Amino acid sequence: MTKCIACGASAEKGLTTSVTDLGNCLIIVRNVPCYKCAECNEVIYATEVVQHLEAIIESAKKLMQDISIIDYSKTAA
Ligand SMILES: [Zn+2]
Asked: Top-level CATH class of 2-74?
């Protein structure tokens, strides 16, 4: 069971959209697996998801597009 880091209520498995604003470009990653708090909507990521998300953002940066929209489920290693 995963607990919310903000309020301590139990968090449930779900999917979210991660938005990273780098100033000159915006990286949107859809369908990111996460745990969502039922009480306060705090989103918690598993360690491996954070690492994978960082790798996606790194590769998206190199594309130098104004907006990159990536589907997490299609990038899984
Ligand atoms: Zn909470």
From this structure: alpha beta
